[in-house]
Amino acid sequence: MTGYPPIADHGMVGDLQTAALVAADGTIDWWCTPRFDSPSVFASILDRERGGDCRFSADLRGESGATIRQLYLSGTAVMVNRYLAPGGVGEVADFMVPVEGTAPTTRHRLVRVARVVRGSLPFTFSCRPRFDYGRAPHALDRTDDHAAVLRGPGTDLHVQVTAPAVLHADGDDLTADFTLAAGEVAAVVLTSVASGEPAPAPPSVDGVAAELEACRAFWLSWLRSSTYRGRWYDMVNRSAITLKLLTYAPTGAPIAAATMGLPEQIGGERNWDYRYTWIRDASLSVRALTDLGFAEEADAFRHWLRSRIEAGRTPSGAPLQIMYRIDGDPHLTEEVLDHLEGYAGSSPVRAGNAAADQVQLDIYGEAADAMARGHDMGDIRGWKAFSDVLDWLADHWDRPDEGIWETRGGQKDFTYSRLMTWVAFDRGIRLAAAHSRPADIAHWTEVRDTVFRQIVERGWSEQRQAFAQHYDTEVLDASLLLMPRVGFLSPTDPAWLSTLDAMDRELVSDSLVYRYDPAASPDGLRGSEGTFNLCSFLYVEALARSGRLHQARYAFDKMLTYANHVGLFAEEIGPSGEQLGNFPQAFTHLALIAAAMALDEQLDRAESRSGPRPGSAVLPGEA
Length: 623
Fold this sequence. Notes:
3-stranded antiparallel sheet, Beta-galactosidase, Chain A, domain 5, Glycosyltransferase, 15-stranded antiparallel sheet, alpha+beta, single chain, 2 domains
């Protein structure tokens, strides 16, 4: 279906409580407020007619040879669309000022600043909100010629719009047109407020300029905490900023992606809501930020995680469920929004996530690893919560589950789940010793060693000479690329190298990696999917740790070519190199950081031994 921009043709802005996507043509086609997981105000990326959007751009219809360029201001989350035409050169900067403090707020400001640097350009603006995923009608209240309020009856949410030109009513929507000459600046501001809140005063041009500078200064200051000085500085910084943008500041909970419903296959049914906090994804995001030197984010997440444990057992009796809302609410009822056609006709569009009730035992390993990296494990309450989880896991680890990929094809004895169970006990034993804390270390050690032996004996496929997806199959699974990183096997262990070779043959296509083969291991869903970006970066990391440096660097360099024009990745790469799935995806960006750091470490070691080889280019296919 036409009318939908490529998923990759977007940047993201946010204020650490919500986020919006800005398309390359100047359209904001996704914004949920006042939280990441709130119903949408703009969602034309999921339905071009019913979803709603906000467009602000130079009008280039009469300009032959005009071009548009989109970029981030370096080291920030300020998005700029530049318009270059014979008649003039201008730009629109989009940003959200990070909310001060950690208190949740219903007031969020999307600021869009236009200026012309040469000649003159006409600009056009339209605002078509569609509250509650396009289900709630809205009313237009005029304040004056330059301001209006769009009210969503029944949603307790209003959006105030201020503009530099006269706002015209288009039904209950708004439009404006104006022209700027060189040196002139104009701003459009969209402010979401709760019903009953006083409307903010219209901002002055100087006030907007100050907000832009404050936003820029915030991000540059935040990045100064990074200790990364490696070879891929810009890409790592962009990934770090993306992970920060995907973290809900009031609780410290990272979400998996900013969007819902974007398809893993155009026209397919694998369309999920990722605006929640998965224990696994969040733990790995925190590890990536911790490795870069960002301690504050890690401490906030560990506090959030401990609060989930202390909240009591889930209905199934487990200490944790696999995901939560960003405030810790465990209720994520899944519904189908059948009034939306879906991105390019990809339906159903789902809000909420029924996978929240699945059993995925690997989460305890990722959570334990995240907790183990903190400096507060001496805290008595924290240790009790942590040790209670391991005591429960010691009695429940040996059971089938749905696995890391949340398949809907039934529970199995997934090798990755057992692997991360081993991690949970390994980290717990180390922490108990390091902090001299009470624990049944003898029992934990017995369970840890039993898990190890079970993986080696039942997870190993003699036929494939590789570790398999679960105990009753010969199918391979890219999640096991984490085996060396978590310390289960040495990266040069023959069993691991044999597994890596098997994955090379079956799951890798030109350095892009599939999660598994759904034809060989049915997952309960129709259709197929692209290669999984998380796995492609885990593959790079595994190659680097296994000493296959030339192959690792070539694979990494090729993966970077799949980033979009501003350095962002979705979940998957399709057969023609297109980005697929929810966007931007935390899994992808955390794995990019890990791959870059592993490559830097191994390349530094190699160069310290022999020195860099002048002119030693990596050639295609070089192993």
